[in-house]
Amino acid sequence: AIRMTQSPSSFSASTGDRVTITCRASQGISSYLAWYQQKPGKAPKLLIYAASTLQSGVPSRFSGSGSGTDFTLTISCLQSEDFATYYCQQYYSYPRVTFGPGTKVDIK
Amino acid sequence: EVQLVESGGGLVKPGGSLRLSCAASGFTFSSYSMNWVRQAPGKGLEWVSSISSSSSYIYYADSVKGRFTISRDNAKNSLYLQMNSLRAEDTAVYYCARDPPLSAFDIWGQGTMVTVSS
Hints:
B: mainly beta; seven-stranded mixed sheet; four-stranded antiparallel sheet; 11 strands
């Protein structure tokens, strides 16, 4: 199975900060990578798919990049509603997708 | 409005069974593959099972294979997960998720909690 890792596992940031989360796959997955945001008690929300394609309705401050094994999610100017946990997901081995362990972003 | 609504969760004893349902609305259910994803308390996301639009292709995670059965009724716009021989480690929130071609899971239900405990 393809294993996904994320770094950092958690960090604190302030509104207005530019933040970057990294996701790494245990083998090459081309651009079959998605990012989700999850708030406590809520379902995950798709932010980005195909490594860099913004899902409809998602603010443009979110962006994704990477291919192969290394990927990043960037939030250009952190807003209060962005404090959440972020997961990456590979779907190269579809339908046996796997998720990263998550990165929690909280308020400094 | 595009929506998925899960139901059927609850408290069950180890070795017991439970059937989850996911009701779809606002889109052509029969055109999409569907999935179940679970999340144990305080943990990350784990894919459980997938079913193609016409039920021709079905897949399971190794952790549930032989115990869980996914199915769908396109006439009723519904997805199901029959869970047998439940274990404590199956305790989780179970989400259904829509699976468009060439994309990731774009629509998720609100989840239903399954607790396996004596």
